[in-house]
């Protein structure tokens, strides 16, 4: 276990981010968020993969929101800056990582934890993992979490999770498109290592081309996406000569 709430370490061509706050359900706090943003925003060109895991039984059970006390009567702008901006910056930083980002999910992925799984390019989950967006229980619209999922998870799935506050098991999360694969809990780490090893056989330029296409092509018209595909393939192939 790290002495810090998040352990960030370069292992070969992989940047490993380990949520390491087990006594708090790996809830994200401001320091953890800032550390992750700093790490993924300054990758050198040799990094091929970013992997987000947890050190304990739960992936992430939410975040510590810096809500002002009720008698403070904060302005909407203060709430936007203090409460809303930090998680949005984290989601945007992960979306902007130029190489694939993989989440390895065990246990509970609640609120921000659910958003982290959804915002990653790949998410492997143990068969006992569960996913929930419970903010409406406190009469809070979870639009920040929703912003991480929209465009990656079907709108009706997001609506159901938010409005019903239902807990999805791993199989339901897979069917909903929130995660990419379910594996037996005892095999989660080995399966994640195997997938990482497969990806790492490719060059950084190839992996970056794939990430760029996944990130940008869905918003392009068909003709533009085709031209972008040709450009990325040619650029990656030219790096071999």
UniProtKB/TrEMBL annotation:
GO terms for molecular function: catalytic activity. Pfam families: ECH_1 (PF00378). InterPro entries: ClpP/crotonase-like_dom_sf (IPR029045), Enoyl-CoA_hydra/iso (IPR001753), Enoyl-CoA_Hydratase/Isomerase (IPR051683). It comes from the Bacteria. Belongs to the enoyl-CoA hydratase/isomerase family. This is Enoyl-CoA hydratase. It comes from Caballeronia glathei. The lineage of its organism: Bacteria, Pseudomonadati, Pseudomonadota, Betaproteobacteria, Burkholderiales.
